[in-house]
Amino acid sequence: MKGKNTVIARIAGAILAISLGLTLATCQAVNAGLGPKIDLYPPTISISSPTANAYLKGTIALQGKAADDMSLKSVEVTYPSASGSKTLTATLNTDGTWTCNIPTGTTGTDNLPDGQQTLVATAIATSGKTTQTSVIVNVDNIPPTVLVSTPNSYFNPLLKNSSSPTFSDYVDISGSAWDPSPITSVQVTLWDNKVPSAPVKIGSQPADGTNTWSTRFKLKDTDGGALTKQNDGDTLTYEINVTDAAGNQSTYYYHQQDVAS
Fold first, then answer.
1. How far from the centroid of its chain's Cα atoms is residue 114's Cα?
2. What is the CA radius of gyration of the chain?
3. Cβ-proximal residues to 170 (8 Å cutoff; 6+ apart), any chain
């Protein structure tokens, strides 16, 4: 009986060993069949700059952050241009921050044109999953148009019967400005042009208002101005600098006298 039991025990052990081997082999086969990790979630992406509805000019630095639970392949930026939809690959840093420089204006067919535009940023994971986000901005590369209405005339040798207005206590300067973007400031500077090659600044001050603006300069030193009796007969000139929300600044202005002529 002992020998018989020994044989049965050996047979049972062999069967157990074979069964265990098959079980282990089966488990290993299942694990091997899973392959690499599965990317269940799409990447994330955000735009930090510029802010929505910002007024911009020149090259726009679009910036943000992107991430993926597995691996992030790239960030692409798409925007409209004169030649059609344009896509650029952003510079992607190891910390997930990214930046893309977008040219604007009318000098190139691939530039982002003036007006309200939508910029789209797409995060692309190595697995192929994508996520998009966008921001609307206002592009403006044109300086404001400025019209001076007061003083209502000025000396212009090209116009017949034109003469310079005469002032004593003060001088009022007013006008209007137009631009696709909001006007943010109007700065008026008054000059004593007695010596044209070396004009002397009398003063510079912000005007009241934006699209319609005005300011007053006191002239007499006895009333807080900068001129004395020695300045009687001097020719005064003025300079108008209007700035819009995109940062464009006017370089010249029109006068009502010229428009009406």
1. 12
2. 37
3. 216, 217, 218, 219, 223, 225
Q: What is the DSSP string of 26-53?
A: HHHHHHHHH-S----S--EEEEEESPTT
206 preceded by a cis bond (ω within 30 of 0): no
Q: Which of 235, 233, 240 is nearest to 255 (CA)?
A: 240
> What pLDDT sits at residue 193?
87
Average pLDDT over all residues of the chain: 85
Please report which helix (H) or strand (E) contains residue 24, including its range: helix 2-34
Tokens standing for 201? 């600044």
Q: What is the pLDDT of residue 38?
A: 79
Q: Which among 207, 211, 212, 209 is positioned nearest to 190, based on CA atoms?
A: 207
- Residues in a beta bridge with 91: 99
pLDDT band for 29, please (50, 70, 90 cuts). Answer: very low
The DSSP annotation for 130-193 comes to EEEEEEEEEE--SPPEEEEEESS----TTSTT------SSEEEEEEEEE-SSPEEEEEEEEEE-
Ramachandran region, residue 115 (left: φ > 0; alpha: ψ -120 to 50; beta: rest): left
Does the pLDDT value for residue 231 go beyond 50? yes
The predicted model gives 8-12 an average pLDDT of 48
* pTM assigned to the model: 0.78
Task: Scan for tokens 């010229």, then name that residue.
Answer: 258
**H or E element, residue 75:** strand 72-81
Q: How many whole angstroms from its chain centre is CA 63?
A: 10
pLDDT per position as a tens digit, 145-193: 999 999 887 665 555 545 567 777 889 999 999 999 999 999 999 999 8
Structure tokens at 191: 């000059």
Confidence at residue 21, expressed as pLDDT on a 0 to 100 scale: 46
